[in-house]
Description:
The complex is a heterotetramer, with 2 copies of chain A and 2 copies of chain C. By secondary structure, chain A is α/β, with parallel strands linked by helices. Chain A has 11 helices and 8 strands. Chain A has helices at 9-34, 50-56, 72-77, 82-89, 123-137, 155-166, 186-189, 214-229, 258-266, 269-279, 285-308, and strands at 64-68, 113-117, 143-148, 171-177, 180-181, 184-185, 206-210, 235-240. In chain C, helix 9 (244-254) packs across helix 10 (269-280). In chain C, helix 2 (47-51) links the parallel strand 2 (25-29) and strand 3. By secondary structure, chain C is α/β, with parallel strands linked by helices. Classes of the chains: A alpha/beta, C alpha/beta.
Amino acid sequence: MSNYPRPTAQTLLEIYKKATLIKQNDERIIKQMMAGKLVMPYYSARGQEIIPSAISVSLEDDDYICTIYRGIHDMLAKGFPLGEMWAELAGKKTGTCKGKGGPMHLTCPSKGMMVTTGIVGSSMPIATGLGWAAKLDGKKRVSVANFGDGASNIGAFHESLNMASLWKLPVIFVCQNNRYAEHTTYAEGTSIDQISKRAAAYSMPGVTVNGNDPDEMYGAAKVAIERARAGEGPTLIEAMTFRFNGHLLGESGHYMDKDVYAKAQADDGFPKLRARLIAEKIASEADIVAIEQAIDKEIDAALEAAMAADFPDVSELKRDVFAEEIA
Amino acid sequence: MSNYPRPTAQTLLEIYKKATLIKQNDERIIKQMMAGKLVMPYYSARGQEIIPSAISVSLEDDDYICTIYRGIHDMLAKGFPLGEMWAELAGKKTGTCKGKGGPMHLTCPSKGMMVTTGIVGSSMPIATGLGWAAKLDGKKRVSVANFGDGASNIGAFHESLNMASLWKLPVIFVCQNNRYAEHTTYAEGTSIDQISKRAAAYSMPGVTVNGNDPDEMYGAAKVAIERARAGEGPTLIEAMTFRFNGHLLGESGHYMDKDVYAKAQADDGFPKLRARLIAEKIASEADIVAIEQAIDKEIDAALEAAMAADFPDVSELKRDVFAEEIA
Amino acid sequence: MSEQLTIVQAVNLALHDAMEADPKVLILGEEVADKQEGGVMGVTKGLSTKYGTDRVKATPISEQAIIGAAIGASVGGYRPVAEIMLMNFIAVPMDMITNHAAKLRFMSGGQTNVPIVIRTMTGVGFSTGGQHSDYLEAWFAHTPGIKVVAPSNPDDAYGLMRSAIEDDDPVLFIENLPLYWTPGPVTKEKVPLGKAKVSLEGKDISIIAHSRMVTESLAAAKTLAGEGISVEVVDLRTISPWDRAAVLKSVGKTGNALVVHEAVKQFGIGAEIASVVNEELWGKLKAPAQRLGAAFSPVPFSKPLETAFAPTAATIADAVRGIVKK
Amino acid sequence: MSEQLTIVQAVNLALHDAMEADPKVLILGEEVADKQEGGVMGVTKGLSTKYGTDRVKATPISEQAIIGAAIGASVGGYRPVAEIMLMNFIAVPMDMITNHAAKLRFMSGGQTNVPIVIRTMTGVGFSTGGQHSDYLEAWFAHTPGIKVVAPSNPDDAYGLMRSAIEDDDPVLFIENLPLYWTPGPVTKEKVPLGKAKVSLEGKDISIIAHSRMVTESLAAAKTLAGEGISVEVVDLRTISPWDRAAVLKSVGKTGNALVVHEAVKQFGIGAEIASVVNEELWGKLKAPAQRLGAAFSPVPFSKPLETAFAPTAATIADAVRGIVKK
Ligand SMILES: Cc1ncc(C[n+]2csc(CCOP(=O)(O)OP(=O)(O)O)c2C)c(N)n1
Ligand SMILES: Cc1ncc(C[n+]2csc(CCOP(=O)(O)OP(=O)(O)O)c2C)c(N)n1
Ligand SMILES: [Mg+2]
Ligand SMILES: [Mg+2]
């Protein structure tokens, strides 16, 4: 990893801005839900902000990503428009999916956010197909498959990595290892100490990095993306992280070991990056506060517009089932 | 492999007897089919005889095995009764499955032959469950899952090996690598040079042996079976072999490279073992001829009884769907 | 002497009693052990603590291996109760269920059988959207070799679970999420599979329903009673094999039939029941058997759409008026 | 100027013409390239040689990845035709098909769509037994968002395949094994999805069928004609969305309906069609719509059982006599 490319000061600031948007947006969603103003199942990614932020700075709008129910962080890092996102979370007709999809199926092709699935493991076969399309297009476009540590134990993982490796597809498999699958600890569900080691079963490069460290995460992603763009095939990246709000908002969290949790908090990547930017004089406290305030305003606007918008008409049940409307 | 236990002369002879039964039975099935006296899809295992023969000598009747459409060799080695097998192939009421299952679903619990499936990969999750049952029984019983090289690319393989390893189940995963999956060569479907290497992804011992060599096959199987009986968990054995009659009886075989085929013939385990028994004076030519003739008689009897038996009554469509008959 | 329990408690009690009664009963699935809080809804709470983690196994996220392990263990002499957390996820182990669990008895000529129960939950109402709310019972009712049950109340939930576990064939046991916390009396009597129940007697029309639609139908019946329409509600309880005799008896009496399910109407189980009613009671019906089901679309997220998607007491009442008024 | 082709040749020709007409059309599946002999039945022969192995990909035995790859490629702007060798194997990628291919358009509010064709073959008659012969169209007809077609002859096989590939939504294309080598004229006209065809005009009863059952029904019609019973045969061609207008028109004329399919009768697609016929033509029917389908059991291996399992010209003729004689 020592030979990884390192992010410039400029890139670090960009990563921090994305992470701030993700974190503040997450906090706002929770606030709205607590106030009963948003009703939906919510899988917070608080703690995983650095991963997609450090990956996305090396991606273009037309690079593809597929993600999961716990994927709003991946989307925002990729440039998903806040307004349409909030409208969708509120189930409004102005949402990206006209309110039909909701939090688990947020989609935005113009930003390469092609598929969000609520089925564990299913982001991988589809991202593999997008990789095939990207390869056929011949435009050096890549496809990123996001999934969790628990998902690495489902059959679709195996089939996807084997096929992507055989066909040398430009796919980056990003396993966001937050140590838990719902209430199951990593070791209770997974028979190997590091998921990245499974890459060897497909003659694929596999690496484990600290997903909360922007240098490591940026470097590993950059190398994998370059490799994919160069037509050299897929890579499996295991990004170690933690999700501080548990699996589903509202759960007890009893299944999480106190010490593990405390240690994870000490490793939280977000405050560390904030402190580092200041220490390395990449940004002043004032700059950062300005960033935070600007983002809060963006969120205010998105939220207000979403709340003010109308719900879709019931006739929408007949549309988008097929291209032609149902009689 | 040098430290593997080696078969005694007595065991080698036992292995040869099983292999002879498998080979002669296969030849007779083909003869009957060519004569139009048996009508069924047939997946010959000619060339793979040594594998189950060298495994089964270390198994008891109450050890479980699950196998696939290409599995008659596994069954005969495990002691599957010839008479009921032939009656089943002929679709007669005297068949093990009353004629309802046919060649792809031959079953004989009294010999531990629990499930035969026609779905690639599906022998593994079920054998894993039998391993769980065996472990709960606490009788040191083991469960053997037979499958092909192509099957190692399907999701069920991944889920089964992960679960069996996590739960330390007494399962032996036997991948009979005959280099082809239907008309697809090993390398066209599999992203790694040896399937045994995939065992590492599950912290499981994995070994590749020459499945046509009774010493290697016996040794690897013995070690894995002992390990399972001792409660130390599963093993993945990749047995290299070849299937000389192609995938499905009647196919053209054009997809098979002539040189590869010729080389495989030179490595055919059956004639080699026959020659060795004589060379090592374990059996004389006369002994072997006697064995061959005795087996031919057994097959004659099974075949004649099968042909003479009645077909099941149509009312059988209402039985064995549920425990209670369909009204 | 029947206590008041919710369906969550009733199923949990049935599992406890079954594990107590028969050491061959096993539990497996994601999160089912107490270390993982006894299931996401707590349905399996206490079982691993009481019966140990050899008999109650929390699994990896591996639905094919979960059902495969249940099948293998059952062929090996056990009675596993496997949980597939939500019904949409049942598509993942579909091969294990339809090509194996449902067929091994027949394909082996009765030499083996697969006494497993597959528990799963589903239902609209909690804004979980397109991949977490579907009713898919029709797929399995069309599959010979597996039974399908769906209780509408705590008493049946307990009784059907006990019978499902004791049944020698695979049983798909469908639990409804919104009904989970509705309390009701539990007699702890086993409920035979394949037997429907008349939940409400009436004269003008028979509503045939299961799971949450029974509750909606009873609510509709109340409204309609006020309008002088007397509704009989038949709770199928078992969808396959379904109780033809009970349904035909009821419709033979009322002369009108409305089959209601939360699943999509087209090609849903209502079509089979309506067809049999029309075939068997031809000439005795006042109107052709009618069906009410969900819209022909995936389950939508947005609240107004989700509400409009599946039948409700109101739409059921309207359908009844439409039929009886004719 | 219509040539005589078998269904194998007609589908192969349709694939050639589609790949020629649109560079976005792709093929994937086990054994589909010429190196593997262009499919186990040769349906994809010549395609990889002509269009290259980037567009025609032989896959590992990984049905979930096969359908996932097709979905992803289609969302990326391509039109993949994926082969799932036999219909029973479709249970393996069931999640990819029902939770994803069929739902992405709706769940994304129309931002994405999945223009894929899933080719699969099935059918009894070749002693392939319990896991290689099932007709499972009912599962998919009950799934909003995916279309289901099943040709009965070479001309429709060509025309439906061309339309299926051009359709902007997922289409399940069911091929019948025993019919593969039956020759027939091929006009190379595209056949619109959702449109049935009257294969034989008649006055006394309408038989509604698809795939091989059309052939059996026509044979039965011949026999019955000799007995003075005039049978109309309606070939559905598309099972979902099915052609209600054509079916109701035919039954409205004959006053009798018999729906025939090779799939298990219970909860099969015949139930939906019979229900709609009874609902819509109530009062105009001489008898309730009847259904004929396979026995309620897995497909048996033994020849006499396999023959008795599914409808035949003889059993169809008997069913018609039973209805018309009434
Ligand atoms: C096929 C399937 N099985 C089970 C579930 C229920 N489920 C939702 S999230 C989850 C845990 C996934 O854990 P992981 O892959 O580590 O991702 P994380 O939630 O930790 O980000 C489970 C079991 C599902 N959605 N899909
Ligand atoms: C899920 C599934 N996909 C495809 C098939 C069709 N099929 C039958 S055998 C076979 C090849 C299997 O190859 P391998 O696993 O190497 O076993 P072998 O036949 O060589 O013994 C295929 C693709 C199947 N039976 N099941
Ligand atoms: Mg996780
Ligand atoms: Mg092979």
